[in-house]
Each structure stands twice: as C-alpha cells, then as structure tokens.
C-alpha cells in the first residue's frame, strides 16, 4: 500500500453531501482505504471569483492503485457525481473536483498528472485542510504546517461537523 493525499472541493448543489459521497466512493473497496479526513471548510472561489463559495477538504488514503489508476478512479467518481469536464469553465463551478496532491514521495509529470500537485503551495483552500491531517509532512521538500501558517487565509472558514444521518 502507498499513502496518497487528495483534495476535494465543490460548489454546486449540497456540496458537503456530494463530497461525503465522493469520499465514500473513493474509499469503497480494497484498492483505496481512508486513513484520515480533514474538516470541511467554506472557501472563497479561486481563479474565477464570480461564483459561489466552495466547500473543500482533504483526505489521506492507503492505495494499491498506481498514480494514473488513482487519477482515473477519482475522475470516474467526479463523473458519477455530475461533473462534465468537457462543458465546464476552467476554475468555474463544479459538483466535485478531486485532485491528487501527493502520492508518497513520487515526483511525476505524465499527461494530465503532475505530482506533487504543481499549485499546492499557492492554494490555502488545500493547505489549510491538508495541514489538519498531514501537518508534520513535507511535500516537495516543503513543510505543510509552515506553508499553511504563512499563506493568506482570508475567507476560509472551518465548518462544524455535520450531524450523523
């Protein structure tokens, strides 16, 4: 098993319910096992700012999948949850976005997959939840907790836990 970290976000529909379902689908089987999940955060949109706030979270998983297979699995779940990448605007509204942030200590540039994620250290909406579950970890030689403490976090709000169904 290999440890990987993923970031999830969305701002269309009941984003918290959609992301709960995304985590369930991602980790529903022997190939991907949930290790840790951050809190949910309400975050301002990034890139394209004239849209609804997002809900973001990060998870740590153990996986037997290769990085490419994990990406294919994540993108299949995005489609199940209503995402159509061919019809959306870059950084625009979406039901679910699932990004692989890091896959163990692998450095990779292959097609649509770059590891570690090339914009990780620019995005407070990833660093803040990631620091909750991987604060003591370094990715690409940089400490996650230090990066999360020093990045601008205006508008990021930790959401209370959802009541159990």
Can you tell me the CATH topology?
Answer: Alpha-Beta Plaits
The average pLDDT is 93
CATH class: Alpha Beta
Number of strands: 10
Low-confidence stretches: none
How does the helix and strand content classify structurally?
A: alpha+beta
Estimate the global geometry from the Cα principal axes: globular
Tally of DSSP helical segments:
4
Q: What summary fits the major beta sheet? A: 6 strands, antiparallel
Helix percentage: 25-40%
Distance between the termini: 31 Å
CATH architecture: 2-Layer Sandwich
Question: Which keywords apply here?
Answer:
165 residues, two-stranded antiparallel ribbon, 10 strands, globular, 28% strand, 4 helices, 6-stranded antiparallel sheet, 27% helix, alpha+beta, Alpha-Beta Plaits
How would you sum up this structure in a few lines?
The chain has 165 residues and is an alpha+beta fold. It has helices at residues 15-26, 67-80, 124-134, 144-150; strands at residues 2-10, 32-37, 41-43, 54-63, 97-103, 108-110, 113-115, 138-139, 142-143, 157-158.
SSE layout and pairings?
Layout (H helix, E strand, L loop, with lengths): L1 E9 L4 H12 L5 E6 L3 E3 L10 E10 L3 H14 L16 E7 L4 E3 L2 E3 L8 H11 L3 E2 L2 E2 H7 L6 E2 L7
Antiparallel strand pairs: 1-4, 1-5, 2-4, 3-4, 3-10, 6-7, 8-9
Helix pairs in contact: 3-4
